Amino acid sequence: MRSTLALVAALLAYPIAAETPPPVRLDAESYAELATELKGLKGKVVLVDVWGTFCAPCKEKFPKVVALHEKYARQGLVVISVSVDPPDDADALEAARTFLTSRQANFRNVILTDHAKVWQEKWKVIGPPLLFLFDREGRLVARWDDKVDMADVEKRVGATLAE
After folding, report:
1. Which residues, listed in sequence order, are joined to residue 81 by a DSSP beta bridge?
2. In the chain, what are the domain boundaries?
3. First to last CA, the chain
């Protein structure tokens, strides 16, 4: 009995290596490629977060997006962050990578390769913040721009996952 207790105590004292998360990636992708990727995610609830390192409200809400991913990924939520920083600006690209890494954004991260005019015209916005929520059928069920209420986003994500 004593040897069993000693073994258990030794095992409890031995540090267990924490699972190392995969490195954060930031992939360059065109608007058309992103649209195709989204179509391929039918069966999943998808939250697309459009952001930029130049956008203070975007950076403020980003940890909440990460938290939604952590909370709901096992229920079928897919999060894709879309940086609209200038892809041909090496400093902006590095700033986006550093930001994503510091926020542990361990989900799909892309930076659009198109000029701002393309995505501004497609989404009918001047700039971020911008969030899109798609249901399991690939239909847009909610869109938030300018002032994003993250409590409302979480409520809609939960309801869409429950459908």
Report:
1. 49, 109
2. 21-162
3. 53
Taking only the tens place, the pLDDT of each residue in 68-119 is: 999 999 999 999 999 999 988 999 999 999 999 999 999 999 999 998 999 9
Does 129 sit behind a cis peptide bond, omega within 30 degrees of 0 on the bond before it? Answer: yes
Backbone angles phi, psi at 146, to 5 degrees: 60, -95
Secondary structure element (H or E) that encloses residue 65, with its range: helix 56-72
* Token pair in block for residue 79: 């999060």
Confirm if 79 and 65 have CB atoms less than 8 A apart: yes
Per residue in 114-146, pLDDT tens? 989 999 999 999 989 999 999 999 999 999 987
Whole-model pTM: value is 0.84
Q: At what angle do helices 31-39 and 116-123 cross, to 10 degrees?
A: 40
Task: Assess contact for 78 and 107: CB atoms under 8 A.
Answer: yes
From residue 31, alpha-carbon distances to 93, 123, 139, 163 in Å are: 17, 11, 18, 28
Could you tell me which CATH number the domain at 21-162 has? 3.40.30.10
Contact 152, 160 (CB under 8 A): no
